[in-house]
Design brief:
128 residues, mainly beta, Jelly Rolls, seven-stranded antiparallel sheet, 1 helix, 7 strands, 15% helix, flat
Amino acid sequence: MALILGISTAIGILIYLLHRQGFAVTKSIAAVLFLFQLGKRGGRASLNSCTGWVRHRGRFRESRIMKFCFDCRLSSGDAEVVLLDSQKRELLRLNRHQSTGELKLDGTARYYLQWEFHRATGICELHW
């Protein structure tokens, strides 16, 4: 019993550390099809009848003004990308109506990038 408790505690600590470093992604998705790829200069989502959100934590390596471009090619529904600070306060929101934005970011700070989908079908890409 003590061995099982020790292993589960170690796994919980490992998941927490991975999430803090930006390696783990949290999500709440209901979809027929959902493919999500994350890269160094952006991300891409391919979806079919998708509702929910995906959030990941990360860091931008340089302190500078960053330009974000959200390319949303949806046949139905809607999608948004929200950049949050470490306290989860909204800094920038991009969608089909406002697809680009600029923001001065701190290279030492951590940020959250949250993708939100509302009955969305199609492809969305974010580049910076």
